[in-house]
Amino acid sequence: MKTTSPSRVEEARQRLIELGGRTAQDLGVGRIPGQLLVYLYLQDAECSLDEIEAALGLSKAAVSTAARQLETLGLIHQVWKRGDRRNYYRTADNMGAALQQGLLSLIRRKLDAAQTEMDQVAEVIGEGMRQPQPEPGLEFLGKRLLRARTLRDRLARVLGSRWLNILVR
Hints:
elongated; three-stranded antiparallel sheet; 169 residues; mainly alpha; single chain
């Protein structure tokens, strides 16, 4: 019995979906949201969670979680169909602007989380420096942390600048 290979359209679609997953994973968003976003982007019409689940071979919970994440970032929108209780999704109307805004939002949240972590590390270093005999290397780490905080603050100012927000509209 001869097995059929996928059509070129399906092969190209699958490769793009996997590329989206890998790219999103590299950006720290997660593989499944990236796959879901590209899958929806490559569709002519909105898709239900059931359709997405079957097409991507993922669990309904994973697809639902990824959809909520992408919706929060403004990259996809829920669509209601009259007489149908299922959830349908489609990509944002202006995908370029949505990606820019979504990525900026994601980066800002990552920077906020980094600030929190750096504050905690600064406390640890400060406690160590107040000891009668500070551990070797603490002063060096303190200087590096100060430099990292400066870079984080500069990036946060750039991301919060009025001009950048005008450019990505």
